[in-house]
Amino acid sequence: MSDIKPVRRRASESVEHRTNDERTQSQYQPYKDAAWGFINHWYPALFSEELPEGAVEGIQICGVPIVLRRVDGKIYALKDQCVHRGVRMSAKPMCFNKKTISCWYHGFTFNLDDGKLSTIVANPNDRLIGNTGVTTYPVEEVAGMVFVFVRQDDFPDEDIPPLSHDLPFRFPENSEKFPHPLWPSAPSILDNDAIALGIHRTGQSNWRIACENGFDNAHILVHKDNTIVHALDWVLPLGILPVHEEPIAIVEDEDGPKGLMQWLFTDRWQPVLENEQLGLKIDNLKGRFYRTSVVLPGCLMVENWPEEHVVQYEWYVPITDDMYEYWEVMVRICKSDEDRSKFKYRFDRVYTPLCLHGFNDCDLYAREAMEEFYTDGTGWDDEQLVATDVSPISWRKVASRWNRGIAKPGRGVTNSTKTSSIRMRRLAEGKAPGYFVEKINDVNKF
Amino acid sequence: MSDIKPVRRRASESVEHRTNDERTQSQYQPYKDAAWGFINHWYPALFSEELPEGAVEGIQICGVPIVLRRVDGKIYALKDQCVHRGVRMSAKPMCFNKKTISCWYHGFTFNLDDGKLSTIVANPNDRLIGNTGVTTYPVEEVAGMVFVFVRQDDFPDEDIPPLSHDLPFRFPENSEKFPHPLWPSAPSILDNDAIALGIHRTGQSNWRIACENGFDNAHILVHKDNTIVHALDWVLPLGILPVHEEPIAIVEDEDGPKGLMQWLFTDRWQPVLENEQLGLKIDNLKGRFYRTSVVLPGCLMVENWPEEHVVQYEWYVPITDDMYEYWEVMVRICKSDEDRSKFKYRFDRVYTPLCLHGFNDCDLYAREAMEEFYTDGTGWDDEQLVATDVSPISWRKVASRWNRGIAKPGRGVTNSTKTSSIRMRRLAEGKAPGYFVEKINDVNKF
Amino acid sequence: MSDIKPVRRRASESVEHRTNDERTQSQYQPYKDAAWGFINHWYPALFSEELPEGAVEGIQICGVPIVLRRVDGKIYALKDQCVHRGVRMSAKPMCFNKKTISCWYHGFTFNLDDGKLSTIVANPNDRLIGNTGVTTYPVEEVAGMVFVFVRQDDFPDEDIPPLSHDLPFRFPENSEKFPHPLWPSAPSILDNDAIALGIHRTGQSNWRIACENGFDNAHILVHKDNTIVHALDWVLPLGILPVHEEPIAIVEDEDGPKGLMQWLFTDRWQPVLENEQLGLKIDNLKGRFYRTSVVLPGCLMVENWPEEHVVQYEWYVPITDDMYEYWEVMVRICKSDEDRSKFKYRFDRVYTPLCLHGFNDCDLYAREAMEEFYTDGTGWDDEQLVATDVSPISWRKVASRWNRGIAKPGRGVTNSTKTSSIRMRRLAEGKAPGYFVEKINDVNKF
């Protein structure tokens, strides 16, 4: 073997040049540990219309199985794992009254309001009754969306923060702090008359690499061929670069959401119009002004997108350590039925095909393309980040400081045993792992 | 954080109220260890008609690959893993005479009767010949079913128990011990003129949770919507409760099957007709009297079901730690061809659609619904059992005391490496893991 | 328990009779460790026609992701994992000029010739530029095949051996050493005017058991029903047996390929015409004379097969520890267009259906039939080899001595995490794990 140093190499040698050097990495260790997500946070669970009166649905967030039921308009959420033999109650909903949900297998019946085991259908005097139960999850329903506070079993009711602490920064109340002369104040899902329209679907990658893609300022290349770009005759820059010592504002006010706001389209970020080496040059830049911010537990806001008076929210809700539910939501203030109809029409005809699909599909695939690199830990150690990655690095740090808990790896729940035979059978049937419980719906055909 | 104790909680706090407290659990530790089943027991392998004269089939029980061949009516069973390169001989049967089976790959030829390597097709003088071999498994064929004694490689021939030790209690010889004034004596598969009709299929869950479902007295809810219930105008109770200090008889006679007999439809169990809290009340109870018992290694008997003079047997045969072969068999004494025809007709037209499917399908899905909870061990530790669970708890204890061996986790056999590439390919082809060997049947098309 | 020794048994007792006893096994431990293949060797990557001018393809060998691009006829190969976020560049090829390949996600741009990070599309002054890069792999293109030297990241350029060191022995230069009076000298892929025609496909088993099947002299049984055998009225022996003290020549010349040559169809191997015990007797033996040899890193040569003047090469290229790319290639010297046309015609009409499929399909399935036995290590310890297995044992030893490195288990690369969610989704879509990168080809439909 010769002693000439080869020109090829990987992370070890170039650590010194990485933006995410060892010292930096140590500042976001909790984030690296959060493969199953951050617990004790508010997450979107369903669109309101997915849970009509009387309906029961089962989902999973951060490895926690959750059943939701709507009674007289109000939604209840409980741990969806019977204390008896562990089946998911949502797989075959059975409710004898408006105050309880019963397990379809042996009739264990839980109060909707406090989760206590209140009776067993055929065993009404058992000593377990009143002495056990399932965790309940606070629910908030706003603007057509159902949010659930996903918590550890022993997280106290009185410590539950308001939903607004886990939703994006609001305007105009933050307009002075984060001025945006280029567009009208973004509406909030919490505003009066706010309407949220959107879709959600399962992405087969970890929620963190999904989230980091959401506010990534350096991946414009992925979108250069999108129809919306060309239909609207945009001329995009090659990218944008931070040129200010504080291109990103970290927000960690005691009484509000924790996250970061990016000063895009200000003098803190500069569009890149040329790469001389590659012979690339952009003339007549013409694009859309927007701004992105992200708050715990992983909620993106894109202001002024895809049009004025509309804001796009995204969530990357952890299901397991390798699946997330991807939420793409447009919010607009609609004060009349006509406003609502127009928004809905435009949503169906323009936003859904060109933005939620089209544009966002590129991001969905990009996140999945990272999965193999990150899933065994390689990526978290070996990635070589650069100056533009100030965004994910800032996010990792603020998320590490302010999350309310790191979800433990799921045990005994759907998709936790990766190779379970029941999971294999579903694959053979053409069903990829997903967000919803599979209902037992044809067992009574005889 | 407040110091008020939350109302939500799981197992840890309610252990004291569980029927399966720590002391109880320690009494069935061997059962908890038996994920791959109990070895050195008799198991059903095939229906007689599945192995016609000359046929060769490969199956797997307790992680042991087994090949069966019928010659001049007699069935032989050998370990289905060539000592040379480990392929399954059953994948491409090759037999040069009536006394041997040869491996299709290199011609290693084993005696059917003692498993010895008796020659190698193209290497008839190798020193390995006569000095190695594959384990043989005793076979019994009764009433249209083929049973195999699945044993460890070093289990001696002279210690093999009779098949009857691993089959249900018989009548009338046990009628005094277990009186049943409500119905005629149940026939046994070992009786003269007994006919066994049934089906078998793969369930994607562990054999233990499958078995426990079989004699579970508390899951009537699962069956309340079944067609057979409504077609026959049955009015089921909400459930039945043990009200006697010995609701279940443990049977552990030295010379016979080991298991338990439940005193259903006696004064030891009481139907539950009302759940006041839920406003449920049953009037005019009208059902079928039956009785369930279970013996090692996991054979259920339902007497007087689905009709008089018929008995239903079920087996939950471990394939791996997360798959079992579900056997549903009806037995009746048929002394004439006409009897046999009538039984077969009723089996095809009534029992198969309404009982084996229909009714039992509900159980199959219930067992699979428990799989995720139990597969990583969570369920065995966290389940909160109640008074009606005296049945599974009794079974776990008696099975822990009397099994003849705990099967070791499969190595080097079909489905033992959960993620093997060959398994993945089968999933992509739409084939879920199953009981039978996949035959190499199209390789000679050119 | 009785103290009579059972007749059944497995490896432990028969170790003394095995050809691969403990001492023998210790001589090929490196081979047993090489589940992911031998690294720092030349492997076939693509047929030339699979990479036309301008094309980009991604593959994986020994757990190393590799992207190939052809520019002005010349082929470049680089590690196909962007240093930034680890995505495979080949999934969505993006090249701005003839000297580089850029990552489609964030525009990281690498020199084709030395792998250095030469610019970032929108970040042309980052300090990482020039200070990191991806490993490059030497490429040779001969006779219609593209070979890549798959190396560890720190393997020095100056130590790269010539391609001929990893290709079969050549003739006539070895004719004296290995005489073959029965047929004309086999052509080499390195000869002038050599044409290589063939196919490659993914086999779902480990590369070693695939390779050992290739030169296995004892598996004639597998082929006895093949159409080519019967169409040509061959009468095959039952097998062939080594009868000389050196039935195989080990080749380990300093300056050339390392491997073994089998003295088939000489007095060192004897056809077996009878197995008295099984009543098998071959009359009028009539077959094809051929000879097999194998060299590191796993390249088979079958001389004089399937016809005179043709030679068949096979490679078993490790993709992961449970997948290999199976290469079946026929080589012939074609000095004119007419020669080439005739060879191609015969290849399409005869060799492909009857040899590459047909005959070789039987081998492909045989290799997969061994996978479950070997994948968890059972086979490597428990297999009971015999005299005819002098071939694989010799190969294991020579491979253990002369390989240039044992590939480490893949991390962060395609198919390394066996249960990754993205892999599961592909299975649900009916796609088995394979050799090529799945292109992101429909994300821009909107």
From TrEMBL, chains A, B, C:
Please tell me whether the keyword Thylakoid is annotated for this protein. Answer: no
Task: Give me the ranges of the annotated region Disordered.
Answer: 1-26
Q: Which UniProt keywords apply?
A: 2Fe-2S, Iron, Iron-sulfur, Metal-binding, Oxidoreductase
Keyword match Metal-binding: yes
Listed InterPro entries: Cholesterol_7-desaturase, Homotrim_ring_OHase_catalytic, Rieske_2Fe-2S, Rieske_2Fe-2S_sf
Q: Name one GO molecular function term.
A: oxidoreductase activity
User: Which residue spans adopt a coiled-coil conformation according to this UniProt entry?
Assistant: none
- Point to the regions of Basic and acidic residues compositional bias: 10-24
* Domain Rieske residues, every copy: 42-148
Instruction: Mention any one GO cellular component term assigned to this protein in its UniProt record.
Output: cytoplasm
Q: What is this protein called?
A: Rieske domain-containing protein
Query: What organism does the record attribute this protein to?
Result: Novosphingobium arvoryzae
